[in-house]
Amino acid sequence: LIGAVEALFESRKSVWSISEELTLHCADWLKKPFLQLDVAHVFRSLIAWDAQACGLLKKMKNDGVLLSIRSRIDSFLRLDSILRQLAAGFYNEYHWRLLFAGLGRRLAPGQ
User: Fold this and answer.
1) pLDDT tens for residues 14-32?
2) Stretch 53-78: mean pLDDT, rounded?
3) What is the DSSP string of the chain?
4) How many angstroms separate the CA atoms of 25 and 20, rounded?
5) Is 29 exposed, middle or buried (CB count within 10 Å of its CB: 0-12, 13-18, 19+)?
């Protein structure tokens, strides 16, 4: 019984560790200028966390935190094509102005 409880605590610790790393890294990635973003590294990290979450879901079926982690990872993975294009540096100031205008925002000087 003690072994099962310890295993459960270790699994929970892993879940919260993944959630914390995901939260911190996603916030950091979204703050960085796109040209400094290593998109390949971002998606390798996301895929690794998703694999860990899937493994834990086999032990902890329908765990709300794990399902939330997987949902957040899936949402970020859907940004793959646009992040790769933005990080490639093909866009100049004109393109950024159009993008901001489309979002109803104004591009500030030096932004």
Assistant:
1) 999 999 999 999 999 888 8
2) 91
3) -HHHHHHHHHHHHHHHHHHHHHHHHHHHHHHS-GGG--HHHHHHHHHHHHHHHHHHHHHSTT-HHHHHHHHHHHHHHTTHHHHHHHHTT---HHHHHHHHHHTT--PPTT-
4) 9
5) buried
Which amino acid is located at 107 in the chain?
A: L
Question: Would you call 8 helix, strand, or coil by DSSP?
Answer: helix
- pTM, to two decimals: 0.74
- Radius of gyration from C-alpha coordinates of the chain: 18
Other beta carbons less than 10 A from residue 15's beta carbon: 21
Distances (CA, A) of 58 to 37, 51, 66, 72: 33, 11, 11, 19
pLDDT tens-digit readout, 36-65: 888 889 999 999 999 999 999 998 888 899
Residue with tokens 């591009």: 107
Asked if residues 35 and 87 have their Cβ atoms less than 8 Å apart, the reply is yes
